[in-house]
Amino acid sequence: MKVEVLYFSGCPNHVPAVDRVREVLAQEGALAEMIEVEVTDTATAQQTGFLGSPSIRVDGQDIEPAVRGASSFGMMCRSYIDGGQRKGVPPPEWIRAAVREAKGR
């Protein structure tokens, strides 16, 4: 399994997102290669399908199913709705669901 955390330099949610991914992987006992991918410019954002910082992908799939067909890529902050509130890091349940989905493939 390959887990990518895409971010841009200076994003305050980059490290908390990485920590959350590590925590979920440990809880799930998932063997995964975790890669941090720094997106440095708009061209790279377009090439990589960067939905904002931080974005998390498991085996190439964004952890948020609702945005998997999105095409608005760029250098922007990303937020997630968790318990009715907008937050800068996705809820652990989303990461867990994506990891379990990948394990089932």
Q: Give the strand line-up of the largest sheet.
A: 2-1-3-4
CATH class: Alpha Beta
- Average pLDDT over all residues: 96
CATH topology: Glutaredoxin
CATH-defined superfamily: Glutaredoxin
Element order: H for helix, E for strand:
EHEHEEEEH
Overall tally of structural domains: 1
N- to C-terminal distance: 10 Å
**Beta-strand residue percentage:** 15-25%
The count of β-strands is 6
Unreliable stretches (pLDDT < 50, length at least 5) are: none
In this structure, how is the largest beta sheet organized? 4 strands, mixed
Q: What's the tally of helices?
A: 3
Assign an overall shape.
globular
| Rg measurement, Å | 13 Å
**Helix/strand/pairing category:** alpha+beta
Helix content: 25-40%
Please describe what this structure looks like:
The chain is α+β, with helices and mostly antiparallel strands and 105 residues long. The protein has a single domain, classed as Glutaredoxin (3-Layer(aba) Sandwich). It contains 3 helices and 6 strands; from the N terminus they run βαβαββββα. The chain has helices at residues 14-28, 42-48, 92-103, and strands at residues 2-7, 33-38, 55-58, 61-62, 80-82, 85-87. The protein has a 4-stranded mixed beta sheet with strand order 2-1-3-4, with helices on one face. Strands 5-6 form a two-stranded antiparallel ribbon. The chain is globular and about 35 Å long. The termini are close together.
